[in-house]
């Protein structure tokens, strides 16, 4: 039971890592709901129900499906570089992680439909497709992340680990 809970938590963490890598430069822009207290990325009026659901004014599936989503892979690479100050050997592994992150971002972006489904059944199918894409993206990034992480010293690992969920773009993370 504990093993399955741990696997579930690791899977959720991995999905969140991929989502943060795939979120793109849209994360740096105010979402449809604008900025300010309580206004998360892309959360605004009509985000969950009715017209404008998951985005407004032809913006499609919102910030996670934005064509700009691949841009965050480079931004996160810069953050990781600042945190760990990689050696040349580590830089190769970090470049591989960046390439895997970009590929994962494309997997997630490609799973976004051009139009949001009208029927409940089609929306459920869409959610399933998105989850499969997220899992595929995690499986794409995980080996590269593990290889990069294995090259780090204990001090570098501590810096990455202490940067916390907010430092990796996981706003609102809960246990």
Please supply descriptive tags for the structure shown above.
mainly alpha; disordered C terminus; about 60% helix; 6 helices; about 180 residues
Topology, pairings included?
Elements: H1 2-22, H2 72-84, H3 88-110, H4 120-151, H5 154-162, H6 164-167
Helix pairs in contact: 1-3, 1-4, 2-3, 3-4
Explain the overall architecture:
This protein is mostly helical and 175 residues long. The chain has one domain. It contains six helices and no strands. Helix 3 runs antiparallel to helix 4. The radius of gyration is 17 Å and the shape is elongated. It starts with a helix and ends in an 8-residue tail after the last helix.
Strand-residue fraction? under 5%
Compute the CA-based radius of gyration.
Answer: 17 Å
Helix content: 55-70%
Largest sheet: none
Q: For the record, give the distance between the C-alpha atoms at the N and C termini, rounded to a whole number.
A: 17 Å
Shape: elongated
DSSP strand tally: 0
> What class would the helix/strand composition place it in?
mainly alpha
**Rounded mean pLDDT score:** 69
- Order of H and E elements: HHHHHH
Low-confidence stretches: 21-60, 67-72, 169-175
The number of helical runs is: 6
Number of domains: 1
Produce a short descriptive summary.
The chain is an all-alpha fold and 175 residues long.
